Amino acid sequence: MSKQDTETETGVVAAENLDRVEAPVTWRTYAMCVFASFGGIFFGYDSGYIGGVQGMDYFIKMISGPDADKLLPWQSSLIVSILSAGTFCGALIAGDLADYFGRRFTIILGSAVFIVGVALQTASAGLALLVVGRTVAGLGVGFVSAIIILYMSEIAPKKVRGAIVSGYQFCITIGLLLAACVSYGTENLDNSGSYRIPIGLQMLWALILGVGLMFLPESPRYFIKKGKVEEARKALGRVRGQDPNSHHIEAELNEIRANHEYEKRMTPETGYIGSWLLCFSGSVGLASSNVRKTLLGISLQMMQQWTGVNFVFYYSTIFLKGTGAVSDPFLMSLIFTLVNVLSTPLSFWLVERFGRRSMLLWGAIGMTVCEFIVAVIGVTVGFNHTHVVDEVTIANNISAVNAQIAFIAIYIFFFATTWGPGAWVLIGEIFPLSIRSRGVALSTASNWFWNFIIGYITPYLVGTEYANMQSSVFFLWGALCAVCIVYAYFLVPETKGLTLEQVDQMLDEVSPRKSAAWKPTTTFANMEEKQTTA
Ligand code: BGC
């Protein structure tokens, strides 16, 4: 047997040992992660309530004047997209805060900032203060949405990490649903309660999250990054529900620490600007380079937005009104939101059974097919053949439009079970600790940036006085989803069942297409030991 064979075998044993010693997953661990995923509720709620509020008579008249029956496209664009502009900036700043003050503190701070933003929006009686309030609240959502992913990925045990981060997506969908229900309940009020109730209620989510997090431990990986090994040990003991001196904790801690030491050795000392530039270091051609991981995170979130999902969540009420086939568009968009909630739990199983890569690939295929069907029915017999009589749109073929609506619901099913959770799970996993907080922050900022762009351009794409694409807008989303298929096939790696440290190794050693078959052959602790004895 050659030296290399012996080394590899020792490595395999070391890697297997690490697997064996990983602490069993306890209810306590689940409970902590599930609580953290609560952050998704106000991400979802905050994006969700605005769709309903924009259709409210009282609100329209307050913003656009007593004779208006809908918001002007620029007003609608501004109100929807300004939140994402705030979140974009919030997510970017949050990465630094999380490295400096800790993950937990940043999330608590985000909740506080969010409460201030919501208070301003609730107090508003016109466009200006509403826009300021949405920007401030956006900053808070930016902090929370970026750092919750980081925190959850860092505390979750590897076996269930995908499922647990998908729980965050589930909470986003519940947030969207709650927002739709509350707006549905208040839409007919003829006073400021119609929009103030759905807006003001959000403070509750931030309070629950902020106060709850005060009782959860900080991420052990943050302490390791700060060189506080004993604090890391205690924190890991708490999240795993184990004695901090047990062999489970010792082995896991050793591996996190050895990986960090290894990365530090490989990473040059840099100043503040240099540490940002580190996210873009290396060569784009290498899967293991930082720049490649950063671009992967940024593009994953971009592609998630390109699927067009927020077209449905932000504008479906207005869109469905225009089809002339739906008597209660509010109720119909509520149904889309319900499909989103009910389908997401399937992803908890899919993500650990089939893995991230297959999930994104099949999800993109499913969404592409549905979107093209919606678009083709539209141009042949459906929505694009409606006509206007006395300013009211009438559908020529109600069953065709209904079929389109059904395929939009199936499309949502595919999104909710695949790209919705998948993009968040992956960005929590692909970055090494040295750039993790910034990498996740940049990727989350990309989500909000594209969210902003789509929120901004959609009224112009479908507005009757502008491009008036009607359901042909689904040709656009379908084409973008087709790009997602190619993207997932060539660029998305399989990270299922690996520790965050093993993901690092895997990206160093194989291309995304071969990643599903990769098995760890050594541990960082083992490599470090060899180095010291050499
Ligand atoms: C996306 C949001 C979207 C939501 C719908 C999230 O993963 O990032 O933009 O509104 O899913 O469930």
UniProtKB/TrEMBL annotation:
Gene3D superfamilies membership: MFS general substrate transporter like domains
GO MF: carbohydrate:proton symporter activity
GO CC aspect terms: membrane
First-listed, main subcellular location of the protein, grouped into a coarse class: membrane
CDD domains tied to this protein: MFS_HXT
Cellular compartment(s): Membrane
UniProt keyword Membrane, yes or no: yes
Alphabetic keyword roster: Membrane, Transmembrane, Transmembrane helix, Transport
InterPro entries the record matches: MFS_dom (IPR020846), MFS_sugar_transport-like (IPR005828), MFS_Sugar_Transporters (IPR050360), MFS_trans_sf (IPR036259), Sugar/inositol_transpt (IPR003663), Sugar_transporter_CS (IPR005829)
Protein name: Major facilitator superfamily (MFS) profile domain-containing protein
Organism encoding this protein: Linnemannia hyalina
